[in-house]
Each structure stands twice: as C-alpha cells, then as structure tokens.
Amino acid sequence: MTAKCGNLRSNRGFGGDWVRVHVASSGMEVSLRVTESDIMQIYRAFTPDNAITGSIVVRLYHSGHKVRGYVRKIMPPGTDDAIFPGEEMAPEAAFRLARDHVRNAELKSIYVELAEGLQWNNAWGVLV
Q1: Are 60 and 69 in contact (CB under 8 A)?
Q2: What is the pLDDT of residue 51?
C-alpha cells in the first residue's frame, strides 16, 4: 500500500528530530525519529580552485590498511589552515566533525579531498 504524506511537523529532541507524519488517506498519524545517519549526505570534491576561505575540507588517506582522515578549515592566503582536532580519525568521525563545524557556519558545503589511489565509498554519502 502506498500513502501520500502531508503536514510534516518536527520537534528537535535528544538524539534526533521527531517528525510527525499525517497520512491523509487514513487520517492516521505516525511519529518517526530521524537522525543524521538516516539522511544521505552530499559532499563536494575538493580542488584548490573550488574551495574558498572558510570552507571545511575532509582529507581522506591510507594509513596502513585503513582509511583515515582529518578535518581542516581553509584560511586566508598566507596563513595555515586550521586543523580539527589535529589527529587522524575514521572517515565517519571526520564527516561527523565536519557536519558539526558547518551546522552554524555561513558556508554549508563540505569538501572532500581524496589521497591519490583512494576510492570513494558510497556508504559515506554522495560525492559530487
């Protein structure tokens, strides 16, 4: 059975957003908990030409047999980029940290820089 949904209302709550969906055909309402992991993330491929000052970049690279990463913020020319937190981490943790940094920022895009030979994993999201 397929139902059209209407009148979406959400409430910010601990651990995610609660979304109440009203199914018009039956008058039924259902509450769903939606977390960041439920939403497909879209990232932009980094090149030195497309990221401007203030952009957040996740750099992924091989470390032994693992893929590791770190997060940096592009700073004005002549200054070093800010690196958060300055240590390598799993890709999922790096993306989560990058999303935290852009949540209240003026620039919302997250760029991804892949080390040579590293292949994108679709489980991380969509890379455009």
Answers
A1: yes
A2: 82
Task: Calculate mean pLDDT across residues 6-26.
Answer: 54
Residue where the block lists tokens 């590791």: 68
- Residue entry with tokens 């940290």: 97
What is the residue type of 34?
Answer: V
Are the CB atoms for 101 and 56 separated by under 8 Å? yes
Instruction: For residue 92, give the 3-state DSSP assignment.
Output: helix
Helix or strand or coil: residue 98?
Answer: helix
Amino acid in the structure at residue 21: V
Strand partners, 44: 111
Distance CA 61, CA 23 (A): 45
pTM: 0.71
